[in-house]
Amino acid sequence: MPLKLCSAIFLLLLYVGSVTAADLFQLTVNGQTRSYSSVDELPDFNTMQQQFNVLSKDQWKTEAINFSLNYRGIDLKAAYPSGSNKVTFNIPSLNKNWSYEGASRQGSWSQLTDALVQESDLVNDLLALMVQYTSNDPVAGNPSSLMDNLVRLDFSAVLVDLPLGNALQGGAAGVEAVPMADAEGMAVDESDSSVSSASPEVAGSEENEESSTEIDERENKIGIGLGFSSYDQGDSKVNTTTIPLSYSWNFEGESKPSLTLRLPISQLDVDGNTGIAFGLGLNYRQNLTPNWQISPNLNYGVTASESLGSGGALASYSLLSIYDWTPSWGAIRIGNQAGQYRSMPLSVGGTTFDAGIESTVLRNGLIFQFPTGFIRDGATFDPYLLDTRYYGTELYIMQYYEVGFTLSGWVFLSSSLTFNYLVAEEDKAKGTSFLFRAQF
User: Fold this and answer.
1) Which partner for 293 in 33, 93, 105, 287 could form a disulfide, CB atoms 3.0-4.6 Å apart?
2) Which CATH number do you get for residue 239?
3) Are residues 181 and 129 in the same domain?
């Protein structure tokens, strides 16, 4: 199994890296336009003189020049007045202006480009616009961003460890479901890959079955997973590969408390421009009643993409409620989550990056569970509906819906495979994803 999983990860990374880049940036100089696929390709002052032939070499030194840059959907403008070395820079959507003047026009342009990566106030103004107006920012505002991944991470316990995981071991209809305190004992999420913890063997009596199950559930667990998503976001194709890692401490007690350390790692690809994200989180789970459990979460994550010209850090806390009902035909689960997600100052090379994000996120889901004893004892089919809404800082996408299903125990009992389809408000994003989770 580990060899197959490593092979799949390698193939997915190759696929992500093979996507052809699109033109995300358009630069116009005195009416002539050229397109570029990444920040790295944007020309300096001398290179612009070679690429744009609307002005002669001498005119570049003295004539009035107007620049317009479409920066992933954000309009930026700059200009040299006739006979002046001073360059003015303007962000129309903010109605803010900056000016820089050197010994030559090239020197002034160098001051401007340095400011775009070194002046924290200017940088953070741009970052705030990116999460609001661009469809593909790695920090926030879309289903491939770091913020959205943290929201999913906190909620993912709802989609695994469903209440019938243990009751279906015998594969017989009408078996009373094991109390949720047994079935839900472990901290689980998309990063810790905790899944249905059904015991692989069926004891000869109900007493032995419960004893075997509890021993299995109380062991500390290593979680690993592999996820891949592909979304059409605006005019961009965005692919994300995720490798969630975790370690869970499962404690004794009637409420079956557990604590999970999470380390999700992901690679983002936006039309061939790559980014990387890392996270560190803690998840605690405890049963309040046999049918109701709560799960508070803490997270910190960092993401960056040099080719997209964006990056930042986020911190979050959330509270998840899970309620289970087990009728005779299967099970129904209701998941409700509320959380605060905020950007955090991140200092790199003397520049502090902070998009000023303060969002409250509500995520709610309805999950059904049906036994699939024809696959194996303890296996289930779990369709679901999800709704996610953002409040606070204005983001490119403020609401989206998901439908999907999880195959619990189909590969092996301590595993699950989830398939998902997402569509955002006003059709701003849509696409599919899958996530395989396993626990050892």
Assistant:
1) 287
2) 2.40.128.130
3) no
Q: Which of these ranges, 65-74, 209-218, 271-280, has the smallest mean pLDDT?
A: 209-218
Rounded mean pLDDT of 255-269? 94
- 151 lies in the same domain as 114: no
pTM (2 d.p.): 0.81
Q: Which three-class secondary structure string do you get for the chain?
A: CHHHHHHHHHHHHHHHHCCCCCCCEEEEECCEEEEECCHHHCCCHHHHHHHCCCCCCCHHHHCCEEEEEEECCEEEEEEECCCCCCEEEEECCCCEEEEECCCCHHHHHHHHHHHHHHCHHHHHHHHHHHHHHCCCCCCCCCCCCHHHHHHHHHHHHHHCCCCHHHHHHHCCCCCCCCCHHHHCCCCCCCCCCCCCCCCCCCCCCHHHHHHHHHHHHCCCEEEEEEEEEEEEECCEEEEEEEEEEEEEEECCCCCCCEEEEEEEEEEEEECCEEEEEEEEEEEEEEEEECCEEEEEEEEEEEEEECCCCEEEEEEEEEEEEEEEECCCCCEEEEEEEEEEEEEECEEECCEEECCCCEEEEEEEEEEEEEECCCCCCCCEEEEEEEEEEEEECCCCCCEEEEEEEEEECCCCCCEEEEEEEEEEHHHCEEEEEEEEEEEC
Domain boundary among 133, 163, 182: 133
Residue 287 lies in a domain: yes
Within this chain, do residues 122 and 151 fall inside the same structural domain, yes or no? no
Residues 352 and 328 in one domain: yes
Gap between the Cα atoms of 228 and 9, Å rounded: 10
pLDDT of 225 over the 70 cut: yes
* 66 part of a folded domain: yes
Q: Which domain holds residue 261?
A: 146-439
Sheet of 65-71, strands arranged across: 32-36, 25-29, 65-71, 74-80, 87-91, 96-100
Query: In this structure, are 44 and 84 located in the same domain?
Result: yes
Are 86 and 187 found together in one domain? no
* Residue 431 in domain: yes
142 contacts 404 by C-beta, under 8 angstroms: no
The whole-angstrom separation of Cα 354 and Cα 123 is 8
Look up residue 313 and give its two tokens.
């850090």
pLDDT of residue 161: 73
Total domains in the chain come to: 2
Let me know if residue 11 belongs to a domain. Answer: no
Give the model's pLDDT for residue 165: 56
Question: Does 265 lie in the same domain as 157?
Answer: yes
Lowest mean pLDDT among 5-19, 120-134, 327-341: 5-19
> Rounded to 5 degrees, what angle do the CA atoms 138, 429, 21 make?
55
